[in-house]
Write a structure and sequence with these properties.
3 helices, alpha+beta, single chain, globular, 90 residues
Length: 90
């Protein structure tokens, strides 16, 4: 009886999971309250998380608001775009 050697070395395994980020960009159209409410409703952020993201986007120009695989982020992106927010997956 022969045993097959299996590799448990992480470098030998190919991962098809690619971590992406959903980025919120600052705009001069939407109010802070609208952005905050959208992040709470769509992304399920707490009020504090949403406020922080809105301020970071305002001062830095952009803010990551969610991370994960592309197929998980796409519905969030679509809904935020429907709400006229400027977002992109990177």
């Amino acid at each position: 009886m022969t045993k097959e050697k299996t590799s448990l070395n992480p470098e030998d395994q190919v991962l098809d999971y690619q971590e992406k980020r959903l980025i919120l960009f600052n705009d001069e159209v939407n109010t802070f309250d609208y952005v905050i409410n959208s992040l709470v409703e769509v992304c399920k952020h707490t009020l504090e998380q949403a406020e922080t993201c809105a301020w970071v986007a305002h001062f830095k120009g952009k803010c990551p608001i969610k991370s994960g695989p592309d197929e998980i982020l796409q519905p969030y992106k679509s809904e935020l775009l429907n709400r006229q927010l400027t977002v992109r997956i990177e």
